[in-house]
Amino acid sequence: MNDSAYKHAFTVLTPTHNRAHTLHRVYESLNAQTLRDFEWLVVDDGSIDNTANIIREWSTQASFPIRYYYQSNSGKHVALNRALPLALGKLTLIADSDDSFVPNTLERFLFHWDSVPKDQQEQFCGVTCLVQDESGQQIGGKYPFDPTDSSLLEVFYRYGVRQEQWSLYRTDVLRAFPFPEVSGEKFVLEGVVWFKIAAKYKTRFVNETLRTYFQGASDQLSSNRLPKAHTLTSIYFAQVLNEHHPWFRYAPLFFLRSAVVYAHFSFLSGNSWGSQWRKLASPIGRLLWLAGVTPGYLLAKRDVWRDGNGCH
Residue 224 falls within a domain, yes or no? Predict the structure, then answer.
């Protein structure tokens, strides 16, 4: 990393869409930070509420720099792609527009990052911590060791830690792995990038809870559901089948489900049986697709029928 290219230790990056009523959680969390070497970079993904006015007012009051950018509504992944080249922090923390975090979040993230030996930091992309819900209950289990120096792939498959987590990344690494973009599709499963990074870099996973994730929000910018982003969803599951197969023995049912979902969304994207086969390079991925393609086809036909009959 070329430190001279950055002005701050941290960029806190917040993509937002019509979240004027929750953005105060991020602002108040930043106001309370014990470490002050950061900027707040807000990318407004086509909001039609009072977001711009609120950010403008906070910019005149805050003791830290706030930069605001607007784009037409294109999705969180596009907002991240547009924002990362603008980041002036050496480390980037993506803070969702409806969550909050503890006052020593940046201090603790920096502590954990600095605890990685200097001669090993080029092998690491960042630090990941635990998350709690709005009632203060930790979401999911802990990492097997504290710290656990591993890849997200191993933590996800071998150790089965698959709940909501929170990650600090080197800015230069994030810039090297942009999200795929497809015209008209506004949602992508973020693992399409996080797992690409994990194939090259390790992460320091720590059993410390720093973020509060408000699970009750029904209109979050990111979500675990699979909306009408057929091509981007099929790209993600093709990646699972092509690149994650060395982990098959730890989660065979997950891989079988991935094959079904890959076929399902590929058919909805207009990809033929032959096209789907050609996009799979691994023998295991192709065998799994053979097992999942028929149910995937039937699910796609069901969705087409529902849309044609006005069912939602």
Answer: no
DSSP classification of residue 200:
T
Q: At 33, is the secondary structure helix, strand, or coil?
A: coil
Q: What's the maximum distance between 2 C-alpha atoms anywhere in the chain?
A: 61
Q: Total domain count for the chain?
A: 2
Give the torsion sign (CA, 223, 226, 230, 234): positive
Residue 182: domain span: 3-213
Distance CA 309, CA 303 (A): 10
Could you tell me if 130 and 58 are in contact, meaning their C-beta atoms sit under 8 angstroms apart?
A: no
The DSSP symbol for 138 reads B
Report which DSSP code applies to 139: P
Closest Cα to residue 260, out of 294, 233, 287, 285? 294
Q: What is the per-residue pLDDT across 202-221, written as a single tens digit (0 to 9) for each?
A: 999 999 999 999 986 544 44
Task: Tell which of 213, 242, 269 closes a domain.
Answer: 213
Question: Which pair of tokens denotes residue 54?
Answer: 């609120």
Clarify whether residues 51 and 24 are in a common domain: yes
Whether pTM exceeds 0.85: yes
List helix spans (H) across the chain: 23-31, 51-61, 76-83, 105-114, 152-157, 171-176, 191-198, 230-243, 252-268, 273-278, 283-308
Judge whether residue 162 has pLDDT over 60.
yes
Looking at 179, 213, 247, the residue that finishes a domain is 213
